Amino acid sequence: MKYIDIHGHVNLPQFDVDREEVFARAAAAEVGMIIIGTDIESSVRAVELAHAHENVWAVVGIHPTEVSALQRPDLGGQASAVSVLKELSRNPKVVAIGECGLDYVSSTPEEITQQKELFIQHILLANEIGKPLMLHVRNGKEMKGAYQEALSILKVHAQVRFNFHFFAGTPQDAADIVALNGTISFTGVLTFTKDYDVVIRTVPLTHIMSETDCPFVAPIPYRGKRNEPAYVIEVVKAIARIRGEDEGKVTRQLLENARAFFVLR
Ligand SMILES: [Zn+2]
């Protein structure tokens, strides 16, 4: 393993037709991966897939935008979902809890209140099990401040490390995350925008990780197609290019960051 995609959704139906080929292409490109759950079903699937493959790990959790779905009577609410997650999280192939956090994009104030409760439940579980947190935090068009709100919740509750996946905050948000020894990860978005160049140049390389968030946001030259873990190489190249650093050095450091953060073995 030379590269790692720390956040992808190979567990989603978009990969049903050729999932084993996607794993094979990643293995051939020396790309390891971490498959992320967004609800109970996809978390279970992530653990199964991690067990069936080498250099594949899983993260289990409930995405903040799934909070309303949890109110469905057949799912038994937050408490029962969290107890299922707790069982899953003991599995040795599970390397973090998430993706969890706050999503202000199209959430109502009531949903945001529920998201905060669910987020805290994930943090407490991560503390109990001693595994880090994979965070999904997003500002809305009008409603900003999700990063600072997430950080203030983490400051009160978190006793483990955390990664802000698909970082889309400000340079100040990034500096505040790093000040708490948190990390940020980037996707193929780097190949077609300069919006994060300042953050990538100013954050220490030790606090950056590489991801695809596949099947979404494929990097150039695959833009518009379904994304997959093997394409994380384009993200690593973009980080090296933006920082003006040696690609080999950046590649080794990004893998080392993930090995240390997730305690991969
Ligand atoms: Zn995701």
Search tags:
265 residues, TIM Barrel, eight-stranded parallel sheet
CA distance, first residue to last residue? 11 Å
List bound small molecules: zinc ion
Low-confidence stretches: none
- In sequence order, what are the helices and strands, one letter per element? EHEHEHEHEHEHEHEHH
Query: What characterizes the major β-sheet?
Result: 8 strands, parallel
Residue share in helix = 40-55%
Radius of gyration over alpha carbons?
A: 17 Å
Can you tell me about this structure?
The structure is a single chain. With 265 residues, the chain is an alpha/beta fold. Helix 8 packs across helix 9. The protein has a single domain, classed as TIM Barrel (Alpha-Beta Barrel). It is globular, with a radius of gyration of 17 Å. The model has no long low-confidence stretch (mean pLDDT 96). It has an eight-stranded parallel β-sheet with strand order 1-2-3-4-5-6-7-8. The chain is built from nine helices and eight strands. It starts with a strand and ends with a helix. Bound molecules: zinc ion (ZN).
